[in-house]
């Protein structure tokens, strides 16, 4: 191959049209999932201090945001609930309330914004008074007794109209049990997005503030979420969840784990999602607010990095803003 001056790599970068023509990775609105925090408490509605640009939404505001997302072409919305503390207890009983806030939110969205897909976490931590993702025996999470609740909760969400249920608890064996429960309840078409590689990360802090578990959490989640140092283990987790019936898999957090995203996509060639979690999004927003970076460019650059690593979709609090930027581009 000829070298400089015959070869000039900058030629392809000189104009917007040539950069677009030779672009290797394309981010589109169809790659985005809007992440939302919803609340059943009027007093809790409004901005989340540790997550700039994000607010807890009541049902009316949720519907309006979903309508905006759908109008921009965003294919799906993911719901994460903030539950009034008076409805939390050690057994997460509110997670099994078919007439509770989350099923009501799903039904409302299905009735008023039917064109958008609904993804809902199958998780106990928003509903427990100890902030953990499972039932506790003393200071230990009881994996097997938690599974039954997760399966029942998934069926309740499917009954309400959820299109995708997303177990985020990292209990062993939960995907298979949820798949069986959904099928037996007449929901063979409801998809499972497994948080297959969810790491015990320090990037979740603002989210825990948003859903009200930060102050309640006893200890940490390292006995069931993955060690951030491990990569081969992530592939093993993915393999197990796919064998149990997962339709798609998630890596969480996203940006610090792009190598995991790439390895999963390369190894399994299945729909691979990443979650741009609260800590990642808060850093982008805080940098901009302090004059340390352009939040719009930072958002698009990080979302493009997910796509370049092999991710098929990205859950992000910035989905609406990104969709508008992409449309403007």
Automatic annotation (TrEMBL):
GO terms for molecular function: porphobilinogen synthase activity; zinc ion binding. One of its GO terms (cellular component) is cytosol. Keywords: Heme biosynthesis, Lyase, Magnesium, Metal-binding, Porphyrin biosynthesis. InterPro entries: ALAD, ALAD_AS, Aldolase_TIM. One of its GO terms (biological process) is protoporphyrinogen IX biosynthetic process. Pathway: Porphyrin-containing compound metabolism; protoporphyrin-IX biosynthesis; coproporphyrinogen-III from 5-aminolevulinate: step 1/4. The active site is at residues 198, 252. The keyword Cytoplasm does not apply. The keyword Magnesium applies. Coiled coil: none annotated. It catalyses: 2 5-aminolevulinate = porphobilinogen + 2 H2O + H(+). Mg(2+) binds at residue 237. Its EC number is 4.2.1.24. Homooctamer. Belongs to the ALAD family. This is Delta-aminolevulinic acid dehydratase. It comes from Algimonas arctica. The lineage of its organism: Bacteria, Pseudomonadati, Pseudomonadota, Alphaproteobacteria, Maricaulales. The gene is hemB.
């Amino acid at each position: 191959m000829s070298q400089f001056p015959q070869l000039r790599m900058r030629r392809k970068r000189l104009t917007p049209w040539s950069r677009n023509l030779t672009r290797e990775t394309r981010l589109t609105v169809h790659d985005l999932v809007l992440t939302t925090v919803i609340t059943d408490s009027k007093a809790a509605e409004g901005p989340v201090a540790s997550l700039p640009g994000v607010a807890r939404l009541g049902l009316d505001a949720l519907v309006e945001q979903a309508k905006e997302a759908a109008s921009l072409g965003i294919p799906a919305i993911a719901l994460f609930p903030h539950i009034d503390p008076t409805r939390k207890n050690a057994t997460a009983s509110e997670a099994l309330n078919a007439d509770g806030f989350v099923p009501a939110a799903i039904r409302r969205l299905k009735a008023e914004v039917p064109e958008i897909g609904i993804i809902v976490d199958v998780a106990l931590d928003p509903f427990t008074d100890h902030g953990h993702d499972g039932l506790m025996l003393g200071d230990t999470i009881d994996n097997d007794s938690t599974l039954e609740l997760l399966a029942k909760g998934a069926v309740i969400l499917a009954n309400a109209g959820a299109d995708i249920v997303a177990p985020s608890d990292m209990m062993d064996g939960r995907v298979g049990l949820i798949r069986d429960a959904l099928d037996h309840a007449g929901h063979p078409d409801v998809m499972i997005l497994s948080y297959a590689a969810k790491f015990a990360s320090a990037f979740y802090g603002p989210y825990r503030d948003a859903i009200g578990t930060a102050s309640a959490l006893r200890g940490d989640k390292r006995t069931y979420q993955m060690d951030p140092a491990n990569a081969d283990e992530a592939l093993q987790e993915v393999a197990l969840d796919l064998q149990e019936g997962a339709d798609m898999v998630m890596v969480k957090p996203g940006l610090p784990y792009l190598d995991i995203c790439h390895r999963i996509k390369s190894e399994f060639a299945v729909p691979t999602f990443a979650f741009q979690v609260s800590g990642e999004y808060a850093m982008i927003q805080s940098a901009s607010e302090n004059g340390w970076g352009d939040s719009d460019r930072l958002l698009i650059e990080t979302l493009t990095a997910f796509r370049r690593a092999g991710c098929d979709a990205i859950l992000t609090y910035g989905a609406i803003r990104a969709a508008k930027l992409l449309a403007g581009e």
